[in-house]
Design brief:
Two copies of one chain form a homodimer.
Chain A (H helix, E strand, L loop, with lengths): L1 E7 L2 E3 L2 H8 L7 E4 L6 E10 L4 E9 L6 E3 L2 H7 L5 E2 L8 E6 L4 E11 L2 E4 L1 H6 L7 E6 L5 E10 L6 E5 H6 L7 E7 L4
Parallel strand pairs in A: 1-13, 2-5, 6-9, 7-9, 10-12
Antiparallel strand pairs in A: 1-14, 2-6, 3-4, 4-5, 4-8, 8-9, 10-13, 11-12, 11-14
């Protein structure tokens, strides 16, 4: 029941149209390194994210381009920026927080698009079967260690392309002192409200 | 079993001698506001904490002066500063991380003194009796909410002067989306290794 943990720092997903505005017409994102989920990669490109209160520079763009533009930050980042983004699944951006993205060639202001990502596990159908989690939407997960604990409301995202991994933001990762070697333990379906 | 949560941002405790070096001979710390624990207060004075890698400005000094100088930071701050401080009870600074403190009149470099504080509950003997926690060193504590969970290894600190409160650092507070109104639930003695 031990699974690998991936810590996601703040990052941005962009549409093709927004890449053109931020980096120039016809610009193609360039791959810095592959991520654990097949086909996903960190780009060499970074942007600045900005609000009326503050800004954070060198925010990594993840590729490939998507059907929506989304900024994923931690609650710590949210305090820095003076935002109160909702906790959401990736892609569920309706009525989420407004934010400005600044690239080398232009900027865009999103009316909505900034979220704190829900804690989630990527799993393929075989993983889900092996873990006895068929039909389970949310699980509780234990993180061992001196500042360990149990995370509630960890959503299970299933797709044949997925590699089994728990994705946490930097607040969860740092609060629990996660390193690249820390393994999480899936305890079973979440019973929390 | 619900108790109040206090979130501690990074802060510094100073000896009288170090106050003299940082703020000038004979300088007395001035009170900004009282903290929840009797006699403890946030000072108007702030310092910069610095390492070879980076620095963080406007770090609050807490009063009154103590018998030891100690810098308490989060793991997120530790990454910013390029440090790897141990998780320790306040006052247990032997072989903890080295850090430089810069004040308006001088600076000091501590060979040891920088820690990540253990999650802890302040309680007086009557609280401990009411909670059925006499003789218990560590408890598990539940935080409700969308990013809620259970914190393991929460130490119980008992003193007649204490006001019942759970103290968390900003990583734990932000990871669990704690606000000033969030209440924690003591589940009982911690069974974790």
């Amino acid at each position: 029941m031990e699974i690998k943990i991936g810590i996601s720092n703040r990052h941005v997903h962009l549409t093709k149209e927004h890449v053109a505005i931020l980096f120039g017409e016809g610009y193609e994102l360039t791959k810095k390194n592959e991520l654990s989920q097949t086909g996903q990669y960190a780009c060499n490109e970074t942007v600045t994210i900005k609000t009326k209160k503050n800004e954070i520079a060198r925010v990594r763009v993840l590729g490939p381009v998507r059907a929506y533009t989304q900024v994923e930050i931690s609650k710590t980042d949210a305090f820095t920026l003076g935002l109160n983004p909702p906790v959401r699944e990736s892609g569920d951006i309706k009525d989420s927080a407004s934010i400005t993205i600044i690239g080398p060639k232009g900027d865009i202001t999103l009316e909505e698009g900034c979220i704190i990502a829900t804690r989630h596990i990527h799993a393929n159908p075989m993983d889900v079967k092996n873990l006895g989690l068929e039909g389970v939407d949310e699980v509780d997960v234990k993180i061992p260690g001196l500042k360990g604990g149990i995370l509630h409301h960890v959503s299970v995202k299933v797709d044949p392309s997925y590699t089994l991994e728990l994705h946490l933001d930097t607040d969860d990762g740092n609060a629990h002192l996660c390193t690249k070697d820390t393994k999480a333990i899936i305890l079973g379906p979440s019973n929390e409200e």
